[in-house]
Automatic annotation (TrEMBL):
<dbReference type="Pfam" id="PF00850">
    <property type="entry name" value="Hist_deacetyl"/>
</dbReference>
<comment type="similarity">
    <text>Belongs to the histone deacetylase family.</text>
</comment>
<dbReference type="GO" id="GO:0004407">
    <property type="term" value="F:histone deacetylase activity"/>
</dbReference>
<dbReference type="GO" id="GO:0016787">
    <property type="term" value="F:hydrolase activity"/>
</dbReference>
<keyword id="KW-0479">Metal-binding</keyword>
<dbReference type="GO" id="GO:0046872">
    <property type="term" value="F:metal ion binding"/>
</dbReference>
<feature type="domain" description="Histone deacetylase">
    <location>
        <begin position="32"/>
        <end position="348"/>
    </location>
</feature>
<dbReference type="InterPro" id="IPR000286">
    <property type="entry name" value="HDACs"/>
</dbReference>
<keyword id="KW-0862">Zinc</keyword>
<dbReference type="InterPro" id="IPR037138">
    <property type="entry name" value="His_deacetylse_dom_sf"/>
</dbReference>
<dbReference type="InterPro" id="IPR023801">
    <property type="entry name" value="His_deacetylse_dom"/>
</dbReference>
<dbReference type="GO" id="GO:0040029">
    <property type="term" value="P:epigenetic regulation of gene expression"/>
</dbReference>
<protein>
    <submittedName>
        <fullName>Histone deacetylase family protein</fullName>
    </submittedName>
</protein>
<keyword id="KW-0378">Hydrolase</keyword>
<dbReference type="InterPro" id="IPR023696">
    <property type="entry name" value="Ureohydrolase_dom_sf"/>
</dbReference>
Length: 353
């Protein structure tokens, strides 16, 4: 098993934002990285510093104008004569019939909600979050492929975990939202297609990853399956229903498992097993697991009740699929248990690695 991170992941610090009629303290804060990094240290696991793979794989998934906004939006925001505030954030979302003239119009075009503001160091963290994930994909692309794709003994030796901060699964082709800016899972799935025919993404974060769904909705070479809280009156609210199955060539390759709010741990794993059955039938070459610790019972975003021990069980289920596995650590906002929960998950990976 190999673990990837980068010191720049801690630079992005969003400020309080207005949502649902009131001000909110951000949940996706740099202190999350401090807690998460304690886990590999406690287990004696080495963390590899990610190297720069470049902007190309990012632009293969996201629109150029959107990436340009993420990179230069803060500079443009500050350059406006009027004081617009300390971070790029308008509360206005007009993605269509918007020529994007001026930074406020660009923000309205590319920021889907107020939970994804851009401040001084945001782009640096956003970029290196994607690069951290890309390092795992690059390692798979460079490995010897003379083995049989069904040789699970070989596959078990290729487990990689990446710290993805800020997270990515809500990021659309040209819109940020839900704490997400670049869609790391989609970026590495697309990157892996250089060599691998079929990629499966299994998302167990508390929220539906509408960005991943959007990007691959009409494709059959990337399966997206998601276990998440019912989107009825819960973020992202407008996607994540069972009837969303894909379009055209992608019909049947987008499978959602929305959980009723209040689902217990047994219910969570019943849905995970259904998602695993779907992935097994698809028989992918590589699995990308979007891991969210926000399914933990005490997480402020939780609408289900997974225990710390449950994350060991979850990891063992991912490894048992017997495929090269890239785990992206994304959601999870209850700081007192992030370290313990990640240790539990890593322990599950190590049992077969």
């Amino acid at each position: 098993m190999k673990i990837y991170s980068h010191e720049n992941l801690s630079l992005h610090r969003p400020l309080p934002y207005f949502s649902y009629g009131q001000m909110h303290e951000p949940l996706e804060i740099p202190e999350r990285m401090t807690e998460l990094l304690k886990a590999p240290a406690a287990l004696g696991l080495e963390v590899t510093t990610a190297t720069d793979i470049g902007i190309g794989p990012i632009l293969a998934v996201h629109d150029f104008g959107y990436v340009e906004f993420l990179k230069h939006g803060y500079e443009e925001w500050l350059a406006v004569e009027e004081d617009l505030g300390a971070q790029v954030q308008t509360g206005v979302f007009v993605p269509y019939d918007n020529p994007g003239i001026g930074i406020m119009a660009k923000a309205a075009k590319y920021q889907a909600d107020d939970s994804a503001p851009i401040s001084e160091h945001s782009w640096t963290s956003i970029y290196w979050s994607a690069q951290t994930a890309l390092n795992a994909a690059e390692a798979l692309l460079n490995q010897d492929t003379t083995h049989d794709r069904h040789n699970t003994t070989h596959a078990d030796n290729h487990i990689q975990l990446c710290f993805s901060r800020p997270p990515g699964h809500h990021a659309r082709k040209s819109a940020a939202g839900g704490f997400c800016y670049l869609n790391n899972a989609a970026i590495i799935a697309e990157y892996l297609r250089q060599k691998y025919e079929k990629i499966a993404i299994i998302d167990t974060d508390m929220h539906h990853g509408q960005g991943i769904q959007e990007i691959f909705y009409d494709r059959s070479d990337v399966l997206y399956t998601s276990v998440h809280g019912s989107p009825i009156n819960f973020y992202p609210a407008v996607t994540g229903h069972e009837f969303e199955k894909g379009r055209g060539a992608g019909y049947g390759y987008n499978i959602n498992f929305p959980m009723a709010h209040g689902t217990d741990e047994a219910g969570f794993f019943a849905y995970v097993d259904k998602a695993i059955d779907t992935v097994t039938l698809y028989d992918p070459d590589v699995i990308v697991h979007v891991l969210g610790f926000d399914v933990y019972k005490d997480d402020p975003e939780a609408r289900c009740a997974v225990s710390t021990e449950g994350f060991t069980r979850l990891a063992k289920k991912m490894v048992a699929l017997g495929k090269p596995l890239i785990v992206l650590v994304e959601g999870g906002y209850y700081l007192p248990k992030l370290n313990d929960n990640l240790q539990a998950f890593l322990s599950g990976l190590m049992l077969k690695d």
